Amino acid sequence: MSAKRLDQVVQATKTAFVFPGQGSQKVGMLAEIAEQFSGVQNTFAEASEALGFDLWQIAQTGEGLDQTENTQPVLLTASVALWRTWLDLGGVAPKYLAGHSLGEYSALVAAEAMSLADAVKLVNLRGKLMQTAVPQGQGAMAAILGLADDQVVALCQQASANAEGSVEAANYNSQGQVVIAGTAALVQAVMAEAKAQNGKAIALPVSVPSHCSLMKPAAEQFAEALEQTAIELPRIPVIQNVNAQAATDVAQLRQALTAQLYQSVQWTKTMQYLQDQGIGYIVECGPGTVLSNLAKRLPNIEKTFAIDSKSRIEDALNAVLVAEGKIA
């Protein structure tokens, strides 16, 4: 089954798709849905051919899945496979797309801004550059819960003042949930102070401190690869991580993807933007339910869906068609 193009499907008016980032991967992802829909295996074969190694085997066995340069292309390919399945089954194209961190690349492939082959090559390189930018064990990330955004920023600034290294807000995920990243010792200091201020702090099992200034060396090298990659303006607006806006030209898009490596993911503002545009339905296109669970808390989101199994994708297909007035 070949993937449909966007000019072959009807576009929704109040549905957005969101694509998850690193951390949503799991061993055996999409195994059940791949048995039902041949497009999943075809998509993995296409991506594997571009990279020269078997992404499906990594996804199913877990061998090497925790290595960032493998995690990123595997997760991107899984998300694109689900997107193609959605369109092939008659799903409507959403009004907007957004992706959390790595998920922004999945969104750009879905929007036909770049090819799957180019995207998996980019994120494979992205993972390698991120891994080498900070020596193993010197960086860390943690989720801070229960404090206001400005409180977390202040704690990071206090910890970084007159210290070797830095710690910063990396992901603004939702109200009361901010992920910090930076030098390991300073991340620990912010965690301790957050707990002292009646917040919660959870260390994240990552090997790379993403979306902070420690990634600037990686971003400089990555910018060169982006310049050499064919990119077009998305055919569906993709809300970018760094500014919660859609790019208006390709140069701006490239610049935002470079900055995304060392600037905060503005997910809270991204979801607010979608709500302001009248979006009421969120479909998470990738393994897991992290982003759809975050969206459930939002006041103007009527319904959220995950589509990483046969039953889930069928339920979402029907519900969105009804919500969009395509079927009674």
UniProtKB/TrEMBL annotation:
It is an enzyme of class 2 (transferase). One of its GO terms (cellular component) is cytosol. Pfam families: Acyl_transf_1. SUPFAM superfamilies: FabD/lysophospholipase-like, Probable ACP-binding domain of malonyl-CoA ACP transacylase. It comes from the Bacteria. Gene3D superfamilies: Malonyl-CoA ACP transacylase, ACP-binding (3.30.70.250), Malonyl-Coenzyme A Acyl Carrier Protein, domain 2 (3.40.366.10). GO terms for biological process: fatty acid biosynthetic process. Keywords: Acyltransferase, Transferase. Its EC number is 2.3.1.39. The active site is at residues 101, 211. One of its GO terms (molecular function) is [acyl-carrier-protein] S-malonyltransferase activity. This is Malonyl CoA-acyl carrier protein transacylase.
